[in-house]
């Protein structure tokens, strides 16, 4: 037996970008011919694809952890690393993708729709790409950034034109089996259907899909029975067919009371914003099991009252196939009218995405700490730059300081009240902690130093001429005092005195 799963949480991790390479080209008679370190490859994305051949999320229920490939490292001779292999996950058409907070990211209602749910990391630049006229031979490269990692919720909502709703054992599965090629499980006990079944119906020139929704009972919209789990599969349907059992043997039940209960549950179910409420959609009534004489008498009795309520009523039998053809053509007519109305609607407005150059790229937030204020820098660029920095390389740290200074981070820290030595954190959580030193100005390109070092980060400073002169005088005075003390000790040991020297 195949288990039907229509809601699952995926734990995704996109591929990490590869690190850039630090390399210097070496040729005959050219021992230092310039940098030739290649770039790292980008990490692989995790992509969701709406596939009509997939009908359940069962595979993701058993294997919820999915990871894309990492990017390769850059190499010498300007060889870039290989891009990480993207991971494509086929999902049923009609899958709604939500983030961990429950916000809808995308609704995959069209077959073939692709959505990058977890973008891969960016590959780091090699020292060849970082070279410029002022920094001709960089001794560092950028690291690759990690890919997106987190949880997403997949929720399947069946895409069908017509939904069959009704009490358990009303004959919905038998009806979809009679009018289509679908073969759902059929038995003589309630709640036989545990997941929606889809069938394709051909009525003249109109072809449409029918969904058999598991049976509803009173209180389904509040979580009773199986209705709450599967009422969302009715949201996308154009028309509703109320399948009423006219041959039920349960006491206290009749077609009219069953219909009132189902209408009450459909009215209590909230549909997403922008969709038509369930009870405002076209509805027809199918009085089932009229092949039983008592059921036919009951159907003829309740039909006038149902028509007085405004319903279009069909007396059917899934055993003898009586009334199925008129019902199919009536449903095909409703679907055709809906499709024609949708075709007349104006095309959705195009969404134009423009660069965010005019918007603020970072922010500084002041937070109180045990040992004073903490200045937290938030923004996509600063966080990404920190991830790309090799903090074991002084030149790379200096390059990070240059980028932050050009972005305007130091000016904003001054405005926020930061002072030299203040604690600065880049990113959320623990982030990367710095002791802010505003003296690191952006002159790294003009500084001459060995590759991989930055003189601005050197703790030892060169003494001035006056400092060396003062130090020299201190040493001379100390030597004179030492010689005087030594002479005094020598005379005291030999018993000499000033009177002996006078004689």
From TrEMBL:
Q: Where is the composition biased (Basic and acidic residues)?
A: 453-492
Ranges of residues in domain Obg: 2-159
Tell me which InterPro entries the record gives.
G_OBG (IPR031167), GTP-bd (IPR006073), GTP-bd_Obg/CgtA (IPR014100), GTP-bd_prot_GTP1/OBG_C_sf (IPR036346), GTP1-OBG_CS (IPR006074), GTP1_OBG_dom (IPR006169), GTP1_OBG_dom_sf (IPR036726), OBG_GTPase (IPR045086)
Enzyme Commission number(s) of this protein: 3.6.5.-
* UniProt key word Iron: no
Q: Which residues bind Mg(2+)?
A: 173, 193
Domain called OBG-type G: residue spans: 160-336
Q: Give residues annotated as binding GTP.
A: 166-173, 191-195, 212-215, 288-291, 317-319
On assembly, the entry states: Monomer.
Q: What does this protein do?
A: An essential GTPase which binds GTP, GDP and possibly (p)ppGpp with moderate affinity, with high nucleotide exchange rates and a fairly low GTP hydrolysis rate. Plays a role in control of the cell cycle, stress response, ribosome biogenesis and in those bacteria that undergo differentiation, in morphogenesis control.
- Name the chain's protein: GTPase Obg
Provide the species name: Microbacterium ulmi
Kindly list the organism's lineage. Bacteria, Bacillati, Actinomycetota, Actinomycetes, Micrococcales
């Amino acid at each position: 037996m195949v288990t039907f799963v229509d809601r699952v949480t995926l734990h995704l991790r996109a591929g990490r970008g590869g690190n850039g390479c630090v390399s210097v080209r070496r040729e005959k008679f050219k021992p230092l011919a310039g940098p030739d370190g290649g770039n790292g490859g980008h990490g692989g994305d995790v992509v969701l694809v709406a596939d009509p051949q997939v009908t359940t999320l069962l595979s993701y229920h058993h294997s919820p952890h999915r990871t894309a490939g990492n990017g390769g490292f850059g190499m010498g001779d300007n060889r870039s690393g290989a891009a990480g292999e993207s991971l494509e996950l086929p999902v049923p058409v009609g899958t709604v993708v939500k983030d961990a907070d429950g916000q809808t990211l995308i609704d995959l209602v069209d077959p073939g729709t692709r959505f990058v749910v977890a973008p891969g990391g960016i590959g780091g630049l090699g020292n060849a790409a970082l070279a410029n006229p002022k920094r001709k031979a960089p001794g560092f490269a950028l690291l690759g950034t990690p890919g997106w990692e987190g949880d997403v919720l997949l929720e399947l909502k069946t895409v069908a034109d017509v939904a069959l709703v009704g009490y358990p054992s009303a004959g919905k599965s038998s009806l979809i089996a009679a009018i289509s090629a679908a073969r759902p499980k059929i038995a003589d006990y309630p709640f036989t259907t545990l997941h929606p079944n889809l069938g394709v119906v051909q009525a003249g020139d109109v072809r449409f899909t029918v969904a058999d929704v598991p049976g509803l009972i009173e209180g389904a919209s509040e979580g009773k029975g199986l209705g709450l789990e599967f009422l969302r599969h009715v949201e996308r349907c154009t028309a509703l067919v109320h399948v009423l059992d006219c041959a039920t043997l349960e006491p206290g039940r009749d077609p009219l009371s069953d219909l009132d209960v189902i209408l009450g549950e459909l009215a209590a179910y909230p549909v997403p914003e922008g969709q038509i409420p369930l009870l405002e959609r076209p509805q027809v009534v199918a009085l089932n099991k009229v092949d039983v004489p008592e059921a036919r008498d009951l159907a003829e009795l309740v039909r006038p009252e149902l028509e007085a309520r405004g319903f279009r009523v069909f007396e059917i039998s899934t055993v003898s196939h009586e009334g199925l053809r008129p019902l199919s053509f009536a449903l095909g007519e409703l679907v055709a009218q809906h499709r024609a109305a949708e075709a007349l609607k104006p095309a959705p407005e195009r969404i134009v995405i423009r660069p965010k150059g005019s918007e603020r790229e970072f922010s500084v937030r002041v937070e109180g700490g045990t040992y004073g204020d903490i200045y937290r820098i938030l923004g996509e660029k600063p966080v990404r730059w920190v991830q790309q920095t090799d903090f074991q390389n002084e030149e790379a740290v200096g390059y990070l300081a240059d980028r932050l200074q050009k972005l305007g981070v130091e000016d904003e820290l001054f405005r926020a009240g930061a002072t030299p030595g203040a604690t600065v954190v880049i990113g959320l959580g623990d982030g990367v902690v710095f002791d802010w030193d505003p003296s690191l100005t952006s002159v790294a390109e003009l500084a001459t130093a060995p590759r991989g070092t930055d003189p601005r980060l050197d703790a030892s400073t060169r003494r001035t001429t006056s400092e060396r002169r003062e130090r020299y005088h201190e040493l001379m005075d100390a030597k004179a005092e030492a010689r005087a003390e030594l002479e005094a000790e020598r005379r005291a040991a030999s018993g000499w005195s000033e009177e002996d020297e006078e004689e």
